[in-house]
Write a structure and sequence with these properties.
Length: about 260
């Protein structure tokens, strides 16, 4: 059977729904290019919407050097967030629904205005932000051992799993986001740290990048949407029994347990 975008979208959603990791799609479909991979991503979104999920925003992936080095890919990407990916504060990682979850600290924007590329700069992007929050993304690649190429991970909705946002929301003008730091603790031990500058020099640069990427595809970032700007540090595994804490300078602390 030959590959096409519908087959790829089905295969990735089935891997997710059955918690079965798989080899990279590009092993079987080496011609999968970036544009087709985004079309696969959009097809998986359509299938999520058809089963009753709603878009709540977007995420960026691979925006920091730490993430790019770990994954061996230095091109940032965007993906979709739906309400089914929202993890309530204090809820444990739903291990029975995920394959091999990893947690990463992120700076999250809640949009007040519509943002449509091309030509969006960090300054215009930040002016469209209503509030800034700390967050933890729980990524969960459908690919075995998180091994993938750029088209693979784009098709796989950038390893989307779950995400949590913190209770503290500040207007962007109250923060120096390049200097906003996060400290990641695993079971009470410091595991990693970074500042917002790790994310494309400034998280607003990541937001601008997302607006321009969506603009290229005729889409826009809508008011009320959440934007996860990308892991500031490498992700840490969250197996059952693990507790991850993320402490931000001004955006509060979040705690996540592996259940
Ligand atoms: C890709 C997902 C990347 C981020 O914040 O960089 C991502 C992966 O690491 O599996 O969510
Ligand atoms: Mg992420």
């Amino acid at each position: 059977m030959t590959w096409d975008l519908v087959r790829a979208a089905r295969a990735l959603l089935e891997a997710e729904d059955t918690r079965t990791d798989r080899g990279p799609i590009t092993d079987e479909w080496p011609d999968l290019d970036l544009d087709t991979a985004y079309a696969v991503q959009d097809e998986t979104l359509q299938r999520r919407l058809n089963r009753g999920e709603h878009i709540v925003g977007i995420k960026l992936g691979l925006t920091s050097r730490a993430k790019q080095q770990r994954m061996g890919i230095d091109v940032p990407l965007t993906a979709w967030l739906t309400d089914a990916m929202l993890l309530p504060a204090d809820a444990p990682v739903p291990q029975d629904q995920l394959i091999h979850p990893r947690a990463e600290p992120e700076i999250v924007f809640v949009m007040k205005d519509r943002l449509a590329g091309p030509g969006v700069t960090a300054a215009t992007a930040l002016a469209a932000v209503g509030s800034v929050h700390g967050g933890i993304e729980v990524i969960d690649s459908r690919y075995r051992d998180f091994r993938f190429t750029l088209p693979d991970v784009v098709a796989d909705n950038s390893s989307s799993g779950r995400f949590v946002t913190g209770p503290v929301g500040l207007p962007p003008e109250k923060l120096d986001l390049a200097m906003e730091a996060c400290l990641v603790e695993v079971d009470g031990q410091v595991a990693d740290s970074a500042t917002g500058a790790a994310v494309q020099g400034h998280p607003a640069e990541a937001l601008a990048l997302a607006a321009n990427e969506l603009g290229r595809r005729g889409l826009a970032i809508e008011p009320g949407w959440l934007v996860l700007t990308g892991g500031m540090t490498d992700a840490v595994p969250v197996p059952p029994g693990t507790t991850v804490a993320v402490h931000f300078t001004h955006l509060g602390s979040l705690h996540l347990t592996g259940g």
